[in-house]
């Protein structure tokens, strides 16, 4: 299978089997299908935007009239779909299903790649926060029965048009690409789906009453021969209709094609093929979306005359003047003080509410929540929005100017803003990164870049002061500024050891985090008063002993890792002349720059210098530092985390490339969303006032993981069968408890051939006759080969059963840095 990776709209997509024929009668390939959907996207997307898509897929092609292919309906988005595909859940009797929303070109291409030839959507849309709205269009499906065709459907369409125009609706026709014609009429969104269905039903009955010889409105198929059935039921909120411009899964690649009324008068009217649709100009169905302009949400929240804000006549944006695009930051004293950042783009001001304002330093990020697009006339708006109106409160211009754009994607914006000469912003390069949701109410991080567009360091900027709240935005209250003096030890701090004293094993025991959910972590951060969130890096803990020239490394259980990672320990790292003990994570990065625990496995178990040197070139590691325990012989563990962090940043200010001090985030939900978006393991939420408690698992550090992982002790082997005959079929694992090694189930997936070979070599010397577990079922023990429970591994799993068994456990790797006595159940 030939595959290729392409970048579309800033998204990476893997395309395969492009030469596979999906329409045998015309020889149309998957590549041509993807090309069609790519080129028709500007016309198709407005008609499906914000609507859940039900797909009809033909992975093996549509076949021929004599031997049709077998399609299947896909409602829920498949598990392997890209994470960036927008989706919302819809409840079903069997539970909620996540439906995709085809809102952009990358999503449309992805759907085509998985052979979603037909796209079906309802007549309603989701709101930005996932609520089902009233329908914004009415549809009539004119379906010809045996003995009639498009000509008769066109006649019925004209009758329906006359009646709809009498009640203020102006319908537009679409030849369905299958048999009949669809008529669409715009609705103002005030009627429910039930009300729209009732209107359509009455309309169908009225036409049937006037033309009983050609029209039928009953569902019964026996009444349809020689007549056109007006299907009004597709206005039901649970029903869908083939989307305008969608392909059809017929023997030839026809399209549900919008047409003009003049075309319906043509006695030779027929369905259009995809190449014929591509050759046509414009979109006859465009008036259907006349309220779908970018300012629709803005206008829906405001009434001219009741607010001093500008209220345009139409939802369309304005033409931008020549020159650099403009921006404004407005200080908004609404129910909660915040700052509104607005960037001119595509004829509107794309807007974010920033509770803490533009971050004054690169060390802290600000949460930004996208709001509705605003008109360009909002650039200089200042005034008081009356009580009772949307956004009530006083708004002033904090700074305004122009910006130079580097990148604008639906999930990332990078620009250099230049404010007024005497304004507080100055010139600053900023990045906005979407972390959760899409469109209005989506969450973003606003980040002050460390360098300008030319790579020169950026200085700190103005701190936004919330005078009426008495707080400083953009920096946590306990975060020390960059020019603050180094903290001194607290009065009751242990005096530490002389600089030349070797730290003991007890000195090197790392502080551990307690497992928690995002909700628990959010509540704890609220209690602490200043959220402090770090990314959880998917590696192994490394406590570093710096002697002023070289680093030595210890694992969390005291094992010496110095020889294992020479790129960290055999080179000058630039951590300064003072001795220090630092805490961090050893990580290996994949091709996309993400920490990869499976990749690190290639390094963790090597012992021979030649092997280590060889693999270090292929799989280099980095040391991500997040804490410091002592400096120049002075124990700083009793200082608050915020002060230790300042010491760490000074220590690593001139460190070499293998050493990284990752940023700290000040919003739990945004950080959790960001870590998930970038495929990271999770986050650690910490109390900024916490001391470093060696060897203690503390609730002042809370770890929140996206997928559940569990350290386990290997105690047995189930022999492999079939293609695994002669090797390991699955491992029997357990978790220590008060009663002994409690059996936790089998792990049989996630192994590669090299992993199985290495495990076989490691476990064979540990073979014995004694069952090390408590509670192994007879079925699992029947052919088990027992091993001494010395090795610790890590697995990923869905949940624990009430009996303590891991469901859907999948192998992640060995943990030579852990001993069986350290393993605890991660509830």
UniProtKB/TrEMBL annotation:
It comes from the Bacteria. The keyword DNA damage applies. Pfam families: DNA_ligase_A_C (PF04679), DNA_ligase_A_M (PF01068), LigD_N (PF13298), LigD_Prim-Pol (PF21686). GO terms for molecular function: ATP binding; DNA binding; DNA ligase (ATP) activity; DNA-directed DNA polymerase activity; exonuclease activity; metal ion binding. Residues 614-737 form the ATP-dependent DNA ligase family profile domain. Its EC number is 6.5.1.1. Gene3D superfamilies: 3.30.1490.70, DNA ligase/mRNA capping enzyme, DNA primase, PRIM domain, Nucleic acid-binding proteins. Its cofactor is Mn(2+). One of its GO terms (biological process) is DNA recombination. Keywords: ATP-binding, DNA damage, DNA recombination, DNA repair, DNA-binding, DNA-directed DNA polymerase, Exonuclease, Hydrolase, Ligase, Manganese, Metal-binding, Multifunctional enzyme, Nuclease, Nucleotide-binding, Nucleotidyltransferase, Transferase. Residues 476-492 have a biased composition (Low complexity). Residues 301-320, 472-505 are annotated as: Disordered. It catalyses: ATP + (deoxyribonucleotide)n-3'-hydroxyl + 5'-phospho-(deoxyribonucleotide)m = (deoxyribonucleotide)n+m + AMP + diphosphate. PANTHER family: BIFUNCTIONAL NON-HOMOLOGOUS END JOINING PROTEIN LIGD. In the C-terminal section; belongs to the ATP-dependent DNA ligase family. In the N-terminal section; belongs to the LigD polymerase family. This is DNA ligase (ATP). It comes from Microbacterium proteolyticum.
